[in-house]
Amino acid sequence: MDRIYQTVSAEAAAHLQIRRGIIAALCVSLVTNAALALTLLTRTDTSRTVVLSPASGIEYIAQNDAVSANLMERFAAESTALLLNLTPSTAQANAEAFLKHVEPRAYAAIAARVRTGASEIVRNYASSVFYPQTSAVDADARVVCFTGERQMMIGREVTQAGQLTVCMRHLVTAGRLQVTQLWMDEAKSSEAARELVRFKALDAGAR
């Protein structure tokens, strides 16, 4: 009888130990899951996907809605190429490709100018090419400026040439890099850094 009692007691103790182990494991699992859920709820998601340019399908990562100066400059360079390297057969398509990356609140004003320029290229059966020479970036203000020579042509004949400044201000919205301002003017200086200062001064004065 003592042997039977000892056997039953040993089995009961073993089952109790297993049960305690299972309960302990469940408690640890619940605590871990709760901690993970709290972390996910309180953590700031710092990864954002940014499309490099209107002409590119490559994707890059921006942290905390901030974009590196290098990425912003490349975005603006390809955007400028879409706007100013035009032929009658590409003008309208380029304009629409660029406008897909314009911030909605700035869309109406920018779209009117861009589409008018494209229509003039088609109507005159002309071509346009821009040769950038210098660039400048203000990462804090998210502004990129280029200076260079723009040539207008009919056929192979250059009908007009001059120094041009192109500046763009950008915004990161929901992970997308967008254009909020587009400024093109006759270059007063061959140095883009000086033209960037001029653009910011004119923009500040207009506000």
Structural topology:
Elements: H1 2-42, E1 47-51, E2 59-63, H2 69-84, H3 91-99, H4 104-123, E3 127-138, E4 143-154, E5 157-173, E6 176-186, H5 192-206
Antiparallel strand pairs: 1-2, 3-4, 4-5, 5-6
Helix pairs in contact: 3-4
Could you please describe the fold and organization of this structure?
The chain is α+β, with helices and mostly antiparallel strands and 207 residues long. The chain has five helices and six strands, in the order αββαααββββα. The strands form two sheets. Strands 3-4-5-6 form a four-stranded antiparallel β-sheet, with helices on both faces. Strands 1-2 form a two-stranded antiparallel ribbon. Strand 3 and strand 4 form a beta hairpin. The longest helix is centred in the first third of the chain and has 41 residues, at 2-42. The N and C termini lie far apart (99 Å).
Give the gist of this structure.
This protein has 207 residues and is of the alpha+beta class. Helices cover 49% and strands 30% of the residues.
**Secondary structure: helix percent:** 40-55%
Ranges where pLDDT stays below 50 over 5 or more residues in a row are 4-8, 12-16, 36-41
CATH class of the largest domain: Alpha Beta
Give the name of the CATH superfamily of the largest domain. VirB8 protein
Mean pLDDT: 80
- Write down the domain tally: 2
List the helices and strands in order. Answer: HEEHHHEEEEH
- In the sheet with the most strands, the strands line up as 3-4-5-6
Number of strands: 6
Sheet having the most strands: 4 strands, antiparallel
Q: Look up the CATH topology of the largest domain.
A: Nuclear Transport Factor 2, Chain: A
Derived from helix and strand composition plus strand pairing, the structural class reads alpha+beta
Taking all Cα atoms into account, the compactness measure Rg is: 31 Å
Shape: globular
What's the architecture of the largest domain in CATH terms? Roll
Determine the strand fraction and express it as a percent band. 25-35%
Query: What is the count of DSSP helices, taking H or I runs of 4+ residues?
Result: 5
